[in-house]
Design brief:
Elements: H1 3-13, E1 14-15, H2 17-26, E2 31-35, E3 46-48, E4 52-53, E5 71-75, H3 83-92, E6 97-101, H4 104-110, E7 115-117
Organism: Salinibacillus xinjiangensis
Protein name: Rhodanese-like domain-containing protein
Domain Rhodanese: 27-117
Length: 130
């Protein structure tokens, strides 16, 4: 793979927070955004506004919640986290159309884009599974 092919593939597989916001303003029904982060709820209480929370560890049992007729956008913690990449691969193997949101929740919050706060008590053990 040469450099041009690499960047073309990267752009095809990802979407930036800015491009995602611009796209949902034009066509809000095109995408289905999923927060796939693992870990205890108290660490995941801030999510991107409008995201469906389906932790990677629960994904296989919750596929029925993910529409096949929309482009799926997945995100996790940050650029150092590969959970969203694992989920994207899993969904692509099942014929979903998928992109990863670059930078995850960290980039989204850094840009002060809309978030939801679902502060809840957590009784789940800290089994990240990353």
């Amino acid at each position: 793979m040469n450099t041009l092919d690499y960047f073309n593939a990267r752009l095809q597989a990802t979407i930036s927070p800015m491009d995602y916001l611009k796209s949902i303003k034009i066509n809000p029904e095109k995408y289905f955004l999923i927060d796939v982060r693992n870990g205890p709820n108290n660490l995941r209480n801030i999510t991107i506004k409008g995201a469906k929370v389906i932790p990677e560890q629960e994904l296989q049992n919750r596929l029925n919640e993910i529409p096949k007729d929309k482009e799926i956008i997945v995100y996790c913690w940050d650029v150092w986290c590969n959970t969203a990449s694992k989920v994207a691969k899993f969904l692509l193997e099942r014929d979903y159309t998928v992109k990863e949101l670059t930078g995850g929740i960290a980039a989204w919050k850094e840009m002060n884009f809309p978030v939801s706060d679902s502060t809840q008590k957590d009784s789940t053990p800290n089994n990240c599974g990353c």
